[in-house]
Amino acid sequence: MGIITSILRTFGGGAASSPFAYQVPQPSPAVSPPSTPRFVYSDTGEPELLGQELARGGEGAVHQLANRPGILVKLYFKDRLANDTELPAKIHAMTALPLRDDPRFAWPRMTVHDDAGRFIGLAMRQVEGVSFQTFCQPRLVQQRLPRWDRRKTVQVAMGFVELIQTLHRYQVLVGDINPANFLFVPDTGAVSCLDCDSYQIRSSTGIYRCRVAVPEFQPPELQQGFSDVTRNPEHEKFSVAVLLFKVLMLGLHPYSHRDGGHPIENLQKGKTPFDPGSGRTDRVCFLDGNWRFMWSHLPFAIKTLFIRSFVDGHSNPTARPTLDEWSDVLWRYGDELKKGWHSDELMPTRTKDSSKPPASQNPSATPQSSAAPAWALSQPHLAPVRPQCPQPHNGRRHSWRQQHTT
Question: Do 90 and 164 lie in a common domain?
Fold first, then answer.
């Protein structure tokens, strides 16, 4: 977890001229320890010169390849390889999934070996963008994304949900959903993800679990442990809701409570900041000030899904909103923002005027746009255009020449 979260979060092509772009200083050339091989090999035995080390964490180190731009190699530490005997089989199974060809994922594209043919790591696509961790601190958003607004935030949230939907179509569960594992490109709102080798996957050889996670994003039923748990979609729905809440509320955890207590302790005890008995979305016990202002400006439908996630869904996992529900309400929110039915302020300085509900919730109101309000459309809402999933990759053995990313 966190092994490649600091890799090259700069923008290629013409993105450097964007008012939203920023650059993180490049890492200085690292001196590889003696145990780091100079060459790595594909599963067909082809050698490739190892390049600069970009990052290292608890599991291993990530390197560039000297002659293969756009491809990174993750080399596991010896203790990681010794303690997880199923790791080679898991990575091999992951390379057979079509997700290896989706540019949004730093997905394992091939296994990597030493000169004796022993498994030592994986090759993956290099992904670029700004970490979701930026959303966790309002000051960072103001500093790094000075022209950022609510509409762009919703676009990123939609991209995140679409990413998880794609994974679920292949029976892949992230497990370790947290802001450090997701990136976005400010110019386009495109979302990508890191550390894919930790995901839970199903293959013909079995289920390979996700054994790592950040507790504050895990559902109540996994708070006592998750490393040996086979995850299910209900677990993932809770984690998705927590991350969406932190994105839309600029870092506030949904179990942060005005009456105190650490969010994880509140989560474990079911101490929700929402008033479960009132049936009203304005009865919350968040901190005062900007947090309350932001909550008041969220659409009723968004608030309702959050309450289902953290009140009803706390003890009843089946009550948690589906990804399709999140996709629909976020699309409607973005559409209504374009029509001026909601404030586009990222951090409102006052509560929403409760005496004047938005046109989408008030049939008697006349919207500013000539278009009919969302609830009055006779045809179903058009969902965001989804990229076509690549066709399954049939080959089981790979060469470096097959790893072009363009």
Answer: no
Secondary structure E strands in 57-203: 60-65, 71-76, 108-113, 119-125, 130-131, 182-184, 191-193, 201-203
Give per-residue pLDDT as tens, 147-172.
899 999 999 999 999 999 999 999 99
Say which residues have a Cβ less than 8 Å from residue 84's Cβ, sequence separation at least 6.
Answer: none
Amino acid at 326: W
Regarding whether 177 and 114 lie in a shared domain, the answer is no
Q: Are residues 101 and 66 in the same domain?
A: yes
For residue 376, what pLDDT is reported? 22
Q: Are residues 259 and 316 in the same domain?
A: yes
* Residue in this structure with the two tokens 């039923």, named with its chain if needed: 221
- Residue 239 DSSP symbol: H
Provide the number of structural domains found in the chain: 2
Indicate the SS3 state at residue 66: coil
In terms of domains, do 246 and 176 share one?
A: yes
Contact 149, 344 (CB under 8 A): yes
Q: What is the domain-level CATH number for residue 37?
A: 3.30.200.20
pLDDT averaged over the chain? 80
348 burial type by CB count under 10 A (0-12 exposed, 13-18 middle, 19+ buried) = middle
Distance separating alpha carbons of residues 174 and 235, to the nearest angstrom: 10
Give the pair of three-digit tokens for residue 397: 């053995």
- For the CA atoms of 263, 233, 214, 136, the dihedral, rounded to the nearest 10 degrees, stands at -60
Q: Tens of pLDDT along 267-291? A: 998 888 886 655 556 667 766 778 8
**Same domain assignment for residues 115 and 76:** yes
pTM value is 0.79
Q: List the single range of 8-17, 87-96, 153-162, 203-212 with lowest mean pLDDT.
A: 8-17
Largest CA distance in the chain: 74
Q: For residue range 112-121, list pLDDT tens digits in order.
A: 999 999 999 9
DSSP letters, 309-338, are IIIIHHH-GGGSPPHHHHHHHHHHHHHHHH
* CATH number for 239: 1.10.510.10
* Ranges assigned E (strand) in 227-366: none
253 near 264, Cβ under 8 Å? no
Domain of residue 39 covers 24-126
In-domain check, residue 8: no
